[in-house]
TrEMBL record, chains A, B:
NAD(+) binds at residues 89-94. The gene is rex. Pfam families: CoA_binding, Put_DNA-bind_N. Coiled coil: none annotated. It is found in: Cytoplasm. GO terms for cellular component: cytoplasm. This is Redox-sensing transcriptional repressor Rex. It comes from the Bacteria. Transmembrane segments: none annotated. SMART domains: CoA_binding (SM00881). The keyword Membrane does not apply. Modulates transcription in response to changes in cellular NADH/NAD(+) redox state.
Length: 205, 205
DNA sequence: TAGATTGTTAATCGATTAACAATC
DNA sequence: TAGATTGTTAATCGATTAACAATC
C-alpha cells in the first residue's frame, strides 16, 4: 500500500529532478540534502522528507549519488512510460503550448491538436495536423491519448471537456476560467493565468 | 494592523469575485455561503472564513448581497487602481499572453512588450509596439509599469529578470524553469507549465 | 575514531472544517 | 416567533520544520 503522495511533494520533486539533470551535465557526482535545499530555497528537512516518499537512496555522511537519485525519481514519477497528450483549442495559448519544448524531457508528448475553426482544421501546428474537435473521440482512441490540455474559449469549455471525457481522456489541464463539471474519473487541474497575475499584484499593493 | 491574508485565500476570493459578476449578469441579488460553496466545490465554512479576511458584510439569515459583496471584494483586492504590466519575451507564450483577454476585468493592463530579436522589435503585438529588451529601464519608468511577465528563453531569464529589477519592477510572474536570484524587494511567482502537466499525469498512473 | 549526513519521529505551524451563539 | 445564515471560536487535519539516533 503505497502511501498517498501530496501534490506539492510531486511538484518539488520534479524540480529536484530538473536540477539533478543540470548537475549531471556539470559533472557533479554527489549532493547533500543541504546543498539541494540551498539552491532551491527550501530546507534540508523538506528535501529528505520529499525524497523519503519514494524510497531511501541516500548514504549517511556523504549524501546522494546524483545519477542514481535522478534516475530513481524518474522511474518513480513515471518518466519511462511516455504519456500522450492532446491540445483542444488552437488559439494563441494552444499554439504556444504545442510549440513548447520542455514537455519531452518529462516523458510527455503532444500527439494531436484540435480546433473547431475551419481555417485551422487541417493546418499544421508544430508538425501536427489540426483536427476537427468533432473528431476528438476517434483520434484520441486511435492514438491512445490519455491527457488533454484545454485552451478553448470559455464558452465552449464545458462542451469540449465533455467530449474529451467521452473519448476516454483521464486528465485535463484546464486553462479556461470555467469550473468543469465532469465525472470524478477525470482528474482536472486548473491553471488560471489571470488569477495568478492578479494574486501577485495583491502582494505589492 | 491588517492581518496577513494567505495566498490561497486571495486566489479563492478572486474566483468568488468572478462568479459574483456572473450572478449579477444573471440578475441574482442574494447568495448564501452555502450556495457559493456548492457551485465552487468548497465548503460554506471556507467561504465565510475567506470573506471574513476582508470584513463582515453578510446578513444573518439571508446571506450576502451579490453586488455589495462583489464591489467590496474588488475594492479590497485593489481592482480600482489599474496595474500596469509588461511582457518580456515575445515568443509563442508571450504573444499568447499579450492577446489574452481576461486581465482587464481584474484591473490589469499590458502596457509594453519587449524582445531582443530585431525581427520582432518595432513589430506590433495586439496594438503594442515591441521594444528592445535593452530599453526596459526607460520604458518601464516612463510608463510607471510595476509588474512583469517573464517569457524569455531559459538562457536569458536571469539576465532579463535583473534588468526588470533594475528598472524598478516590483513583481515578476516567471514562466521560465529558472530559479531567479533577485533582491527580496522583487516578489516572484513561478508558473511551470511542464511541471503542472507532469504532476497531473502522476495522478492517473 | 570524528565528522557529516541520512531517514524518521516528534514538535510546530498553518489551513481547513465543524460547531455554535448571535442575529436578521 | 421559527428558520436560516452569519461571523468566529474551537477542533481537526495536513504540511513543514526541528531534532536526533543510526550509519557511512
Amino acid at each position: 500500500m503505497p502511501k498517498k503522495i501530496p501534490k506539492k511533494t510531486i511538484q518539488r520533486v520534479l524540480i529536484y529532478h530538473r536540477y539533478l539533470t543540470f548537475l549531471l551535465q556539470q559533472g557533479t557526482r554527489d549532493i547533500s540534502s543541504k546543498s539541494l535545499a540551498d539552491i532551491l530555497e527550501t530546507t534540508p528537512s523538506q528535501v529528505r522528507k520529499d525524497l523519503s516518499c519514494f524510497g531511501r537512496f541516500g548514504k549517511s555522511g556523504s549524501g546522494y549519488d546524483v545519477l542514481e537519485l535522478r534516475d530513481l525519481i524518474g522511474k518513480r514519477l513515471g518518466f519511462e512510460k511516455l504519456r500522450k497528450v492532446c491540445i483542444a483549442g488552437m488559439g494563441n495559448l494552444g499554439v504556444a503550448l504545442a510549440g513548447y519544448r520542455g514537455f519531452e524531457d518529462l516523458g510527455l508528448t503532444i500527439q494531436a491538436v484540435f480546433d473547431s475553426d475551419p481555417k485551422k482544421i487541417n493546418r499544421k501546428f508544430d508538425g501536427l495536423v489540426c483536427r476537427d474537435i468533432k473528431e476528438i473521440a476517434p483520434v484520441v482512441k486511435k492514438n491512445q491519448i490519455d491527457m488533454a490540455v484545454l485552451t478553448v474559449p470559455a464558452g465552449s469549455a464545458q462542451e469540449v471537456a465533455r467530449r474529451l471525457e467521452n473519448a476516454g481522456i483521464r486528465a485535463i489541464l484546464n486553462f479556461t476560467p470555467v469550473k468543469l463539471t465532469l465525472s470524478s474519473r477525470v482528474k482536472v487541474s486548473n491553471v488560471d493565468l489571470a488569477v495568478e497575475l492578479k494574486t501577485l499584484s495583491f502582494f505589492i499593493r
